[in-house]
Automatic annotation (TrEMBL):
Main localization, broad class: cytoplasm
Protein's cellular compartments: Cytoplasm
Enzyme Commission designation: 3.1.21.7
Marked site: Interaction with target DNA: Y77
InterPro entries tied to this protein: Endonuclease-V
Keyword Cytoplasm among UniProt keywords: yes
Protein name as it appears in the record: Endonuclease V
Superkingdom: Bacteria
UniProt keyword Magnesium, yes or no: yes
Reactions catalysed, as given in the entry: Endonucleolytic cleavage at apurinic or apyrimidinic sites to products with a 5'-phosphate
Length: 230
């Protein structure tokens, strides 16, 4: 293990005992939910990234605010330590928000991580808000039991490692690939599932929160990557 991996692991382990898989809010009081995603590109031998956050009204599902921030990526990609690449941009983007989201949904994992410290969980300690991880693909975890849910809307299967529940495989729409849901922090898994399903509409298997953020990253990456000096 390299020195940087060792330091990153220590940082992750520092937060482990602080993770709460209980709701720290009341669902009927939820007002604003933010979707978070990032996209990357390379220019002149340097890697850049853009983070986009889209804030959505929980009841009306209307977009309330959109912000983004881009900059050079200073941390290399190391499997299991993605948060260290993404968190600096995420926090800079959050600073630009005029609204204060009650909850953040990340395009990525949370508790569904070999050390329970995916981006959704890691970021929660800096945001001080409950978080959910919503992943489009499965990040393999050693010895995990992963079964596909029935082809029914809302069907899910628990992802377990050694009898511990790490997350869910969730079928948000019929005849489409499932997504992978996990608690970030300050939330129960069933509540995370309910919120995710609440935001799923006919256009996509993804909740509109992270879907809108994902769409924004494609737009902003194209916009910023055409600029030679970022």
């Amino acid at each position: 293990m390299s020195n940087i991996e060792s330091e990153f692991r220590k940082e992750q382990e520092k937060w482990l005992s602080e993770i709460s898989l209980k709701n720290t809010f009341k669902l009927n009081a939820l007002r604003l939910v933010a979707g978070v995603d990032l996209a990357y590109w390379t220019e002149a031998g340097k890697e850049y990234g853009v983070c986009c956050i889209v804030v959505v009204d929980y009841q009306t599902k209307e977009i309330i605010e959109k912000v983004d921030y881009h900059g050079e990526i200073m941390v290399p990609y190391i499997p299991g330590f993605l948060a260290f690449r993404e968190l600096p941009l995420v926090l800079k983007t959050v600073e630009k928000l005029q609204q204060s989201p009650d909850l953040y949904m990340f395009d990525g994992n949370g508790y569904l991580h070999s050390r329970h410290m995916g981006i959704a969980t890691h970021a929660s300690f800096y945001l001080n808000k409950p978080t959910i991880g919503v992943a489009k693909t499965y990040f393999k975890i050693e010895k995990a039991i992963v079964n596909m849910p029935k082809d029914e809307v809302g069907a899910s299967e628990s992802i377990q490692v050694g009898g511990e529940e790490y997350g869910l495989v969730l079928r948000t729409r019929k005849n489409v690939k499932p997504i992978y849901i996990s608690c970030g922090n300050g939330i129960e898994l069933e509540t995370a599932k309910a919120i995710t399903m609440h935001f799923v509409e006919k256009e996509s298997r993804l909740p509109i929160t992270t879907r809108y953020a994902d769409l924004e990253t494609h737009t902003k990456r194209k916009e910023y990557s055409s600029i030679k000096s970022l």
